[in-house]
């Protein structure tokens, strides 16, 4: 046998031994890369699911905030109605809205009261209601009020009514 053949056999055996020892490592690296790819895909899928969930929750939160704003506006409207009812109650308590308690056909029955002052129970009831004279009690209370105060005694309300007109 020639030396070249022996060298060739030794080289082939060394290469085969190297491959025999290297193949498990190469396979392990390939499996590791495959697992990393799979893990990366799972991460992307999980991230996409969480983004979708976050978008849905954000939409739900926006809708809830809008419902809260609507509820706040409704509460403010109800507070305003309650305040208006309270103001009407105060007018009635003070006797400043007695004319609202008497219907036109009852004016003669209540003539001379704070609801229908003397001389207001005429046939021309609408004109009498518009030109109704102020009673002595009202004259005394009106003298104590500022010139810009309305019948409720609140100067700001008188200014507000002027703005509405």
Question: Explain this structure to me?
Answer:
The protein has 4 helices and no strands. The chain is mostly helical and 165 residues long.
Described by the principal axes of the CA atoms, the overall outline is rod-shaped
Distance between the termini: 127 Å
Q: SSE order in H/E notation? A: HHHH
Percent of residues in helices: 55-70%
Tell me the number of helical segments per DSSP (H or I, 4 or more residues long). Answer: 4
* Count of individual beta strands: 0
**What is the average per-residue confidence, as pLDDT, rounded to a whole number?**
78
Strand content: under 5%
Give the biggest beta sheet: none
Low-confidence stretches: 133-143, 145-152, 157-165
How much is the radius of gyration in Å?
48 Å
The structural class is mainly alpha
List the topology elements.
Blueprint: H1 3-93, H2 125-130, H3 136-143, H4 155-164
Short description:
This protein is mainly α. The chain is about 70% helix and about 0% strand.
């Amino acid at each position: 046998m020639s030396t070249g053949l022996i060298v060739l056999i030794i080289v082939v055996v060394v290469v085969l031994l190297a491959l025999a020892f290297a193949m498990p490592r190469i396979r392990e690296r390939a499996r590791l890369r495959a697992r990393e790819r799979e893990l990366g895909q799972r991460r992307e899928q999980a991230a996409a699911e969480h983004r979708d969930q976050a978008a849905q929750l954000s939409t739900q939160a926006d809708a809830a905030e809008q419902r809260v704003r609507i509820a706040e506006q409704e509460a403010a409207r109800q507070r305003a109605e309650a305040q208006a009812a309270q103001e009407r109650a105060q007018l009635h308590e003070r006797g400043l809205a007695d004319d609202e308690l008497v219907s036109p056909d009852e004016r003669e029955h209540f003539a001379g009261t704070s609801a229908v002052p003397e001389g207001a129970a005429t046939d021309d009831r609408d004109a009498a209601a518009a030109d109704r004279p102020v009673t002595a009690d009202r004259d005394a209370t009106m003298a104590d009020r500022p010139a810009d105060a309305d019948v409720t005694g609140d100067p700001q309300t008188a200014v507000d009514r002027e703005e509405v007109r």
